[in-house]
Amino acid sequence: MDRRDLLLTAGASFTTPAFRWLADPADEPAARAGTVRVGPADVERLWTAAAEAQVADSRFGGGHWRRSQVMDCLRGAGPLLDGAYSASTGQALHTALAELSRVAGWAAMDAGDRAASDRLLIQALRMARAAGDVEMGCYVLATMSLSGYLAGRCAQAAEMASAAYARGRGHAAPRVLAFCKLAEARALAKQGDGAGAGAALALCESLLSGLRPGSHDPGWISYMTPGRMATDAVEVHRDLGRTRAAMVWAERAGAMPVQRFTRAVGIRRAVLAGVHLIDGDLEQALADAHRAVDILGGVRSPRAHAYLHDVVGRLGRWRDEPGVREVVHRVRTELPSAI
Question: Within 13 A of 276's CA, how many CA atoms are on the CB side?
């Protein structure tokens, strides 16, 4: 594939790119002789843009993804790919572009633009392969699994996450492998496979608890902590109808700073509202739903808002209650649309 034509033009289906990566996940890094000299500062600029975009996405949602610095960097990446660099710099460049594409793809998915998200995530996988970076490719494939899960393709998502873990063993850091298992647990729970989801979560927890100071631990996945795992485990157990286990995991998740993880905290509140509704605890469910609207009212994220619309659906049996009507009205009128 011609690198000059690659950016922002990849196809929309995950199946073929994923199979190709699994069969041959790494190219041999090579030097390139071009007209524009590419150095460490260029690579660092891309990593900085990706990190800043990840924080902005978490705080404000993916609704502004088309206008983001990430997209500016991707649009301007052609000359860098065609530039002059050593094999090691070329490897670093492609890895940085893989993460930049992954972040942009996740933001597009969060904003509800699945076609663009698919293209960007496929591009990220191809960049990881061009970098010879199996670990980054594993991370991208697990992200693609989560995207598939959110699109309702849960069987495919579970297979992709499992494959990412299998390919990443021996190459990827424990946090990356734990991320794969967390993605697999979410997809399996949505299919009602409690045993499979439980096994994936247990392995995820084991990987995170086995981290040791000084071991290989890439900073771009530092958010994958026991607290993050516990937050997602609440949703896993809600999907399985195991409300007691969901509440135990909610206590283990602890507090997350809403100013930094705005979307995640709002989603957790919406998920807890659903858990309480399964138990028939309307009062607590309404309190969590109101808090979720308070938090997500400033976040442009159709994905996050879908959790509150799910709560509205679960409130149907109490639709004549005044408190329920108030929550329903707030969900339908106060959540911003994506741009």
Answer: 18
